[in-house]
Amino acid sequence: MQATEQPSRCGMLDVGDGQSVYWEEWGVRDGVPALYVHGGPGGTLGASGYRHRFDLARTRVVGFEQRGCGRSTPHVSDPAVSLATNDTAHLVADIEGLREELGIEAWIVNGVSWGSTLALAYAQAHPSRILGIVLFAVTTTSRAEVDWITEGVGAIFPEAWDRLASHAEQAGIGYRRGHGRLIEAYAQLMAFPDPAVRDAASREWAMWEDTHVSIGAGGFRRDPRWDDARFRLAFSGLTTHYWSHDGFCDPPILQRMELLHGIPATLIHGRRDISSPAVTAWGLHHAWPESTLVIDEGDGHGGASMLERWRAANEDLAHRLAG
Length: 323
Known about the structure:
By secondary structure, this protein is of the alpha/beta class. It has 2 domains: about 10-145 and about 250-320, Alpha/Beta hydrolase fold, catalytic domain (Rossmann fold), CATH 3.40.50.1820; about 145-245, no CATH class. The chain has helices spanning about 90-100, 115-125, 145-150, 160-170, 180-190, 195-210, 230-245, 280-285, 305-320; strands at about 10-15, 20-25, 30-35, 60-65, 105-110, 130-135, 265-270, 290-295. It is found in: Cytoplasm. It is an enzyme of class 3 (hydrolase).
């Protein structure tokens, strides 16, 4: 069947701590349940294009927007909103609460970019609720990955990285390159009480995001979502918050892979993904006997060819489970 323009159901789930998360459903209620976990942190569901990566005639697809972003409330673009309860453990609990609310016994879990980290953290916490896993642009948000995407990749984009670091040095917070982590400096800037400081830092962060994903994506393009200050501030604030804490994954995901043994998975990654080099997907695959690693030689941090592989992986899982 063709995807409709509106979800079949949607709502807000009170998850405690004064937080409510937006969720939506697509497909058929009696289909194989599947969860989509968006990237970012703070990336939102966007225009819900993720639904096209599933066969909606046989799948019950659920998407949700993580704490503090999108249609979830309160929104972290408001500086008065605390991040004290916005961490991976709370997001994992939110997912499990949503599963219980919707009466789903177990589901296929999909994660994209940061969403793959969160999907893995959820699966490790609740392996009995996982029918299978599909990850796209694989990350585990380890310290090495965070330091690469915020520091090391500057060897490939030296002009852009110099601009990013210079802004932090000139912001008056005591940061100097070579003395401290740049990601921690930007987390500090995004928590600054002066709205002008936060806005300026979010613009620099957005420029860096567009730069490091440009290889494999046809060159540098400005993401039009940055025009929405509310989105830009939430994305930059949440990303720097999570990355400065190494994704709140302690111990790191790769040190807990025995928890996922027996669960089938497909890991889809672009060879030209400079933001998240393929070594992470390879390490995950090597530690996960039931996983299949698909390396797309032409794509970077997501592209048309990878999207086709993503849909094929979900269709294969749904077909096997429905059978």
